[in-house]
Amino acid sequence: MRxxxxxxRRLGFRxxxxxxxxxxxxxxxxxxxxxxxxxxxxxxxxxxDGGRECVVxxxxxxxxxxxxxxxxxTDAEEIAVPAGTFQMGAPSxxxxxxxxxxxxxxxxxxxxxxxxxxxxxxxAGCCDPPRYNGSYTGREPYYGNNDFSFYPVVFVDWExxxxxxxxxxxxxxxxxxxxxxxxxxxxxxxxxxxxxxxxARANFGRARDGDxxxxxxxxxxxxxxxxxxxxxxxxxxxxxxxxxxYYGVSPSTDPPGPASGxxxxxxxxxxxSDATALYSFYRGxxxxxxxxxxxxxxxxx
Length: 301
Known about the structure:
Layout: H1 16-28, E1 47-49, E2 52-54, E3 65-68, E4 71-74, E5 78-81, E6 84-88, E7 99-103, E8 106-109, H2 115-123, H3 158-167, H4 175-183, E9 235-241, E10 264-267, E11 284-286, E12 295-297
Parallel strand pairs: 9-12
Antiparallel strand pairs: 1-2, 3-4, 5-8, 6-7, 9-10, 10-11
């Protein structure tokens, strides 16, 4: 199903503001010009495409740190999620059937990728900038403005998200990894448990006047593993294609997602979502080339 930030799953008239903004942004905020309008290849070994070179500076980080696009970050910003088994999905609805999944250990970014981090990739020549440098309520500039450095980057499509993660030596999480990181192995409804969402746990429920918040602003809403903002703030791209029948045939160990599809899965809800979309099992989808002011991502490895 397509994402809607109200109880409906399919895009409708209430999403028109995001759509109109995204279309306008695509027309007036062009990327740096790699061939076929694609982001340049990423990777620590550099590369070229369409005359633009991707050059990642080499840096020596201290113990307990890692490098991304020539900048050192503390390892505490990546959360180690141990191997485990959990019940994925729900007993009914689009998330049916609920099924057991066993995953190998992985790590997940504690926060959604921020404007500041994404800018490092752009300045290295490895990523195209967001399609629009504003936000849902018209905060301009949003991307590239130091006041919003630690807010989630938005208006990036699935390919931009994938390229950023791969260039940082990471990848997008699978849908199963994302859900396990959000709900743990105890079947909780939300990352923090079964208590209904409120303003202390998540940025949500403001469909007309809401906007992104600084990452990590809702510590009470952290997942059982300590991952922040997995409910609300912005929807998050994951690696998988969306297939409503996949849960019925997916492997029980490290499911990779469908081999192909038309739309990609998004997870987590956003500042405009109602409480239903914040369920840790809730699935949404967007076309991979779409980008909106309520849509971002985080990386795994």
